[in-house]
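Illustration: Putative NADPH-quinone reductase (Modulator of drug activity B).
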Amino acid sequence: MKTLCILCHPNRNSLSAHLADHTVTYLRERGHDVTLRDLYGEGYAPCLSEDEQARYNTGPHVDDADLQGVEALVLIFPTWWSGMPAMLKGWVDRSFLPSIAFDVDAGALHPRLTQLQEVLVITTLGGPAWVDRLVMRRPLYRVLKWGLLKPCAPKARFTMLSLYGAETVTEPRLSSFKTRITRQINRWSRP
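Result:
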């Protein structure tokens, strides 16, 4: 499967980077065609310029090619303040664009990412699961699934794997989480 992996963490020695390395290695071992973008590592510019914003509906766009033909999308990042890092939000703003991710007709959105089959989000959180699930009601999950993917890639299977208590994770818990990642990838229909 043509797979785009997006890593978003400022520290290349972070837990997110470790999980990205594990994920990319496993995907390649399984025969997937993987492109890894390390947004911080490449000095990604997340802000739209005035000129880019003026061309928002018409293009061309800097990140036009990122999502074209991609069958699987993997996002790997820490959850900060119940949301994605600003750098990743900038990538979303610059990649999920009209004529790339969706079309607008009479005010309605029409999906264009019909080839996208799998979306896997791998995120780390410092807090416990009960805060994210019961108190906050999984805000990031809801934004990604219903606010971003359903309008742009409604047929894509969405999975979010969250490693809670990441700041104190033990080696056995980390190993178990990495097993969850590989099991999820094994559920994909084909490499």
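Reading the tokens back as a structure: The chain has a mean pLDDT of 91.
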